Amino acid sequence: MIKKTVIVSSESEDIGSKLDFAGSLIRRGGLVVFPTETVYGLGADATDRSAVEKIFKAKGRPQDNPLIVHICDVSQLRDLTDEVSEKASVLIEAFWPGPLTILFKKKDNLPEETTGGLDTVAVRMPNHPLALDFIKKAQRPIAAPSANTSGRPSPTRMEHAQEDLDGKVDMIIDGGPTGLGLESTVLDLSGDRPLILRPGGITREMLLDYLEDVDYDRSIEDINEKPRSPGQKYRHYSPKADMQVYSGEPELVIEAIAGRIKEGKQEGKRVGLLTVDENIDRYECDFKISMGSSKNLEQVARKLFDALRGFDLLEVDLVVAEGLSEEGLGKAIMNRMAKAAGGKVYYL
Length: 348
Ligand code: TXA
Ligand code: MG
Known about the structure:
Layout lengths: L5 E4 L5 H13 L4 E3 L6 E5 L3 H11 L8 E3 L15 H10 L4 E6 L14 E5 L4 H10 L3 E2 L14 H8 L5 E4 L10 E4 L6 E4 L5 H4 L7 E2 L1 H4 L20 E6 L2 H17 L4 E5 L11 E4 L6 H18 L3 E5 L7 H11 L4 E3 L1
Parallel strand pairs: 1-8, 2-8, 4-6, 5-9, 10-11, 12-15, 12-16, 13-14, 13-15
Antiparallel strand pairs: 2-3, 3-7, 4-7, 5-6, 9-10
Helix pairs in contact: 1-4, 9-10
The structure holds threonylcarbamoyladenylate and magnesium ion.
Magnesium ion binds next to loops.
């Protein structure tokens, strides 16, 4: 159904009353796009089955892919789960509000649409004043996936969400570009050892300051393994073009990419290059986008999804991309690049 989407700027003078209105839309079963510190979210009342169904419809999202529930106060956890472990409490204290999503055993009253039929619920408290204010005014826990059409790169600017969801949601709250640019880390504490199901803003290294051990789910190390997090199994974050990533020894990577660009052109393709500031002048390619400096992974994280969407605007047929270090935030960056490339990452 096409509806009029109201766009609200965080800079407008009466932002307080506009957030009140956003909250009332949620209580009436509506959809509201809101900024978080990671990416924009597409929010609905997590306790309202039919509102949550609308999220799946608006995004074209597979029904078995569960949603993250966003809260603004730790006391809201009580409505979602009966079990908060010692480990979870330590991490909540350390990282909330922030880009860490934790899985809990879910309470029965939560609709199965929210959790994709699983017996766990994923919860996080976003570190963004507008998000926190909005959730508070909604007086509900907010189920919210990233505010993109399923499969496309996550939205790091209001315009990205508008491009995908205009006419499908009731309101979009514009908070400008998001700070982190990559989604939250999804962490499962239910097993013997804590498992990262999706690498994100809170790195393994940061978690190790508070936990004795943390592993990555095997599907993160090996794209052929079946992931434990349903969302990780889909091709994702993708530009419309075919994408290939080359990573490893810098000179070999540059040589391989230059060769692939040439080959692509000979095949009559419009070839796009995704690279870093340090190397952008070393290639001959008609359509180049830099993710920023390879020495500044925070900057790369912020720019990545916008760059991937950029190739859609350039209407290229093939994107050849330079891989980055997998240290720290690099793990999440490379995870998103690998997904965007449908696993086509070549290590040299
Ligand atoms: O930063 C973020 O996490 C953003 C902002 C909006 O908060 N949200 C986000 O949501 O990235 P989404 O739906 O695009 O990704 C959620 C991921 C999916 O991979 C999903 O499968 C996983 O979290 N997930 C959610 N609930 C889960 C559960 N109970 N068990 C395992 N994985 C779960
Ligand atoms: Mg997503």
